[in-house]
Amino acid sequence: MLSTECELLSNQLVAPDHYVMQILAPEIARASLPGQFVHLRIPRTMDPLLRRPLSVMLADKVHGHLRLLVRAAGRGTEIIVALPSGASVDLLGPLGSPFPMPDEIDGGSDKDVLLVAGGVGVAPLVCLADAMRSLDDTPYIRSMFGASTEDMLVCWTELAARSDEFSVATEDGSAGEEGLITEVLAGQLERGHARVVYGCGPAAMMAEVARMSAEAGVPCYCSFEQRMGCGVGACLSCAIGAAGGGYLRVCKDGPVFNAEQVDWEAIRDE
Amino acid sequence: MSEACPDLSVRIGSLVLPNPVMTASGTFGYGLEYADICDLSRLGAVVIKAATVAPRVGNRPPRIVETAAGMLNAIGLQNPGADAIIAEKLPELAGFGVPIIANLAGECVDDYVLLADKFAACGHVAALELNISCPNVEGGMAFGVCPEMTAELVGSVRAITDLPLITKLSPNVTDITEIAVAAVTAGSDALSMINTLLGMSIDVRRRRPLLGNATGGLSGPAIRPVAVRCVWQVYDVVDVPIIGSGGIMCVEDALEFIMAGASAVAIGTANFVNPLAGTEILDGLVDYCQSNGIKDISEIVGVAHG
Ligand SMILES: Cc1cc2nc3c(=O)[nH]c(=O)nc-3n(C[C@H](O)[C@H](O)[C@H](O)COP(=O)(O)OP(=O)(O)OC[C@H]3O[C@@H](n4cnc5c(N)ncnc54)[C@H](O)[C@@H]3O)c2cc1C
Ligand SMILES: Cc1cc2nc3c(=O)[nH]c(=O)nc-3n(C[C@H](O)[C@H](O)[C@H](O)COP(=O)(O)O)c2cc1C
Ligand code: FES
User: What does the alpha-carbon distance between residue B125 and residue B165 come to, in Å, rounded to a whole number?
Assistant: First the structure.
C-alpha cells in the first residue's frame, strides 16, 4: 500500500459521462491485482474532502500506467473527470482483496469462466480477464456485458478483446439481446460448463447473478461498492451485511466477496 | 547550522508522551491498519477505536456521508469487545513502541469500571480515555451532557486505577466548561475535546435520511471553529492538559488548538484524507518551533489568551 502523488497522463471521454483516465503510478501498477482499487483525491484541496474509490481497469506493469474508468456520478467524480492531462492526482493503493484466480477455486479446470459486467462494473473484470490471459493455463473466458443502451457499453472492446466469447444485452435493444444481461447468463449456466462466475455491476444485477449461480451450483464472486472513509480497514465506514449476521468491510475484506459471504437481503434494502 | 530539536514532550498525569500528536479514536483503527504506510513509532500516541465490554456489530449502513468540509459518521461503536482487543490487537500494536491509549465506551458506570480494570490489567495501555460523548448509540452521550453523571463516572473509574485518565467531552452541550470542571474535580488527569457534533443529512431524491442510523456525528474541517472555541473556554477553567481535536488537517490547524490551550492534538478525519497527516503535522510542529525560537512547545500552549 502506497500513498503517492501521480501524473494524470490522459483523460478521455469514452461515452456520455464516462472517462478513461491513464495515470503514471509505477509502484501501484506493479503491485495491483485484479479487483483491487485505488483511493483517489485531488492533492491540496479539501473539497471534496474524502477520497473516491475507483477500480483498476488495467495495470500496465511494464510502463507503470494505471487505467481507470470513471463515471461522473456526483460532485466528486465530476471534479475528478474534469482534470486536464498533466494534472496531479493523489492515489492510495492498491487496496482491497482481489478476485481469486480460477485455479484457486474448486470448480473443474476444464470448464469455462463466466464474466458478467453491468455498466462501469466492467472495469475490474477487464483487469481480471487481462490477468487470466497471461496465466500458464488460460481458461476459456465467456464474457457478458449489460447496459441500458448501446452508449453505456463503455469500454466493451477492452473486455471483448480479452475474452474467447463475448455477448451483450441492452435494455432498449440498441445492441445485442434486448433485455437484461442475467437472461444471457441463464443461457450460459444452462450449458452446465461453467467453473466460476465473476460479476460486477449494480447491486440488483449482482444479487440475481449470485442467486442464479448458487442455483446452478457454480461458485460466484462479486465486487461491491460502499461509501468509504479510510479505505484501509480502520474506520468501519464501508460495512455491508454479512451472511451470518454482522458486517464485512468492503475496503479490506472486499471489495470482492464470495457471493455466499454476503447478506443479499440487507444489501437490497439499503 | 541546524537548530536544536525543541522539546515536544507532553505530560498527562504520570504519563509523558514523546510528542503531542496522537490519532483520534475511531479514525485509526488499532493502528495496525496503517502500519504499512505510517511510521507508528513516531506518533505521540495511538488512541484505539472505542472498546465496549461485549462485542458490538455496529449500525446499519450507510454509515458515513460527506458534507461540506466534513463528514457525518454513525458507525455505532462496532468493535470485537475488550477481551478480543486485548488478546488480538494490543500485543501487535505494542510491538511498534508507540504509547497506546484505550478509548472506553459503556452503558453504565459498572461497564466503564470493568473496562478500565481489563485494560489496566493487560499491561499494554499507557492511559484510558473515557468516551462519554458518542452520539451514535442509544445513551452514548448520556454521561457527557450531565455534570453529576460525569463526576460519578470519572470518580468510580478513578477509584480503581492509577492509569492516567482522560475524559473525552461532547460539544453537544449548553456549557462545556461545567462538564469539564466536573470531570477534573472527580479526578480526570486530562480532557480530550471535542467528539463529533450531532448532525444529519437527507437524501432529497429518496426523501429519506442518508445514514442508516438517521443521525450521525459531524467531523472534519467544518467543526474546527467550534472545537477551538471549546478548548479556549475550557482552558480558562481547568488546570489539566487538554487534547484538542476537531478538523485538524495540517500544522497550522494544530497550532490553532495549541494556542487556544491544547497541550496535545488528536488527528481524526484527516487520516482518511492523508494517512501521513499525523507525522507530517509532527514535522511541521518541529519546523515551527525551530523557526520561531521555541525550545519547549509548552511555551505556546494557550498563548492566544494573552
Ligand atoms: C471498490 C469500489 C470500486 C469502484 N470502482 C469504480 C470505477 O471503477 N469506476 C467508477 O466510475 N466508479 C467506481 N466506484 C464508485 C465510485 O467510487 C463512486 O461513484 C464515487 O465515489 C461517487 O462520488 P461522487 O462524489 O461523484 O458522488 P456523491 O454521491 O456526491 O458522493 C458522496 C459520497 O458518497 C460516496 N459514494 C457515492 N456513491 C458511491 C458508490 N457507488 N460507491 C462508493 N462510494 C460512493 C462518495 O465517495 C462520497 O464520499 C467504485 C466504488 C467502490 C467502493
Ligand atoms: C469514523 C469515525 C469514528 C469515530 N469513532 C470514535 C470512537 O469510537 N470513540 C471516540 O471517542 N471518538 C470517535 N470518533 C471521534 C473522533 O475521535 C474525533 O473526536 C472527531 O472525529 C473530531 O476530530 P476530527 O474532526 O479530526 O475527525 C470517531 C470519528 C469518526 C470520523
Ligand atoms: S473505509 Fe474505513 S474501514 Fe473501510
Answer: 11
Domain A2-95 has CATH 3.30.450.20: no
| Domain B10-60+74-200+217-305, CATH | 3.20.20.70
Q: What is the pLDDT of residues B107-117, one digit of tens each?
A: 889 999 999 99
In B68-214, at which residue ranges do the beta strands (DSSP E only) sit? 70-73, 100-104, 127-131, 165-168, 190-193, 197-200, 202-203, 208-209
Using CB atoms, pick whichever of A1, A50, A226 lies closest to residue B66: A50
- Active site (catalytic) residues of B: 134
* Residue minimizing CA distance to atom 10 of ligand 2: B25
CATH class, range A102-222 = alpha beta
CATH 3.40.50.80 placement within chain A:
102-222
CA B73–ligand 2 middle distance (angstroms)? 9
The 3-state DSSP class for residue B96 equals: coil
Q: Considering the entire predicted model, what is its pTM?
A: 0.96
**Partners of A23 in the beta sheet?**
A8, A66
Contacts of B60 in chain A (CB under 8 A): 241, 266, 270
Cell of A190: 444452462
Rounded Cα–Cα distance for residues B200 and B300 (Å):
36
Residues of B in contact with A231 (CB under 8 A): 272
Q: The complex's ipTM?
A: 0.94
Residues B241-270: pLDDT tens digits? 999 999 999 999 999 999 999 999 999 999
